[in-house]
Amino acid sequence: MKIKHSLIGSAFAFLLATSCCWLPFLAVALGGAAGLSAFSAGLEKYSGLLMVVGVGLAGWAGWQFYKKSQARTAGKVVLQSLLTCPSCGYQKMETMPTDACQFFYECENCHQLLRPKPGDCCVYCSYGSVKCPPIQSGEACC
Fold first, then answer.
1. Is the pTM here over 0.70, yes or no?
2. How far apart are CA 46 and CA 49, in angstroms?
């Protein structure tokens, strides 16, 4: 809802800021209303301020949209990871557990038992294409 308000506000500010340019043409198109031309000429001295307000509101709208998109993707945890065996290069897509770390994994091709590398919490953090769910969520791993 805030994004709609900020977009409407920035569009309104843009229209107001540029009214010194388009309002006289509108007045002529509608039959040369002298009152609109005078109003436009009065706004011309404020055009710089109105343009700054319009650009500021457009920037604020973009920032609000960026923050909202970050919040939408922050809570999503990817559960599929492509494990790659360091010995033979065999790859397999696996679903990571969400309630426990996986310390061991046996390669289906060469049957080597994979263990996490020093400093990693599980085999997905060491050999997977995606880190484990606790790390993705910003939590400490097992």
1. no
2. 5
